Amino acid sequence: MALASSPFGDPVAEPAFWDDSNLRFNEGGCDPWGNLYCGSMAYDRTEGAGQLFRVSPSGEKTVVLPHVSTSNGIAFSPDGTLAYYNDTKLRQTDVFDVIDKRLINRRPFASSDGASNDGLTVDSEGNIWVAMNRHGKVRLYSPDAEILTEIQLPVQLVTACTLGGPDMRTLFITTSRENLEDPEPEAGAVFAVEVDVPGMPVAEYGG
């Protein structure tokens, strides 16, 4: 294994994940304890070809989900007891319980109403923002899966969202123009919307 430099101290081992040229990483995020969750997908979009991995601060690699189609947005509740996750092919957002820093008891959290759920983020009150790809909007859910609001965008391919800015109350929304024969004029732009509830500091990898 190669060694990766770390701002936290000595270099850590960089794990190998696969030797299949049809696979790539797609999206990831960190938990409150410095573990990195990173998910893959197939370039040819073969269903179930990807995986969701956890990489510990020491570089130890664990397979969390062995069969994923398009791994997307993962984020944790403010108290670290829940994790939200999208496998876009399933057209829903799932939730896990987090016990002893491990993800267990995966179950559906909210349906996408036919959209391709993409990236997501969680605010400081535990509400969940979800990018609704192909439906041109971002939806806000309460922790009880109640739809609190929706933000409509002038483009269809809404890919991810996160909260930032000086007061963490700016919702940044990324979009795409990939494979569009006649893309909307603003396809591929990053949008910014001011919201009421701030986000949380970005969880960092501990290795």
Task: Provide structural commentary.
The protein has 207 residues and is an all-beta fold. Helices cover 0% and strands 54% of the residues. The protein is built from no helices and 17 strands. The protein has strands spanning 2-6, 9-14, 23-30, 36-42, 50-55, 61-68, 71-76, 82-87, 92-99, 102-111, 116-122, 128-133, 137-141, 147-152, 158-164, 170-175, 190-194. The strands form five sheets. A four-stranded antiparallel β-sheet has the order 3-4-5-6, with no helix packed on it. It has a four-stranded antiparallel β-sheet with strand order 7-8-9-10, with no helix packed on it. A four-stranded antiparallel β-sheet has the order 11-12-13-14, with no helix packed on it. The protein is globular and about 40 Å long. The protein starts with a strand and ends in a 13-residue tail after the last strand.
Give the tags.
17 strands; 4-stranded antiparallel beta sheet; mainly beta; 207 residues; globular
Please give a quick description of this structure.
With 207 residues, the protein is an all-beta fold. 0% of the residues lie in helices and 54% in strands.
Q: Secondary-structure blueprint of this entry?
A:
Elements: E1 2-6, E2 9-14, E3 23-30, E4 36-42, E5 50-55, E6 61-68, E7 71-76, E8 82-87, E9 92-99, E10 102-111, E11 116-122, E12 128-133, E13 137-141, E14 147-152, E15 158-164, E16 170-175, E17 190-194
Antiparallel strand pairs: 1-2, 3-4, 4-5, 5-6, 7-8, 8-9, 9-10, 11-12, 12-13, 13-14, 15-16, 16-17
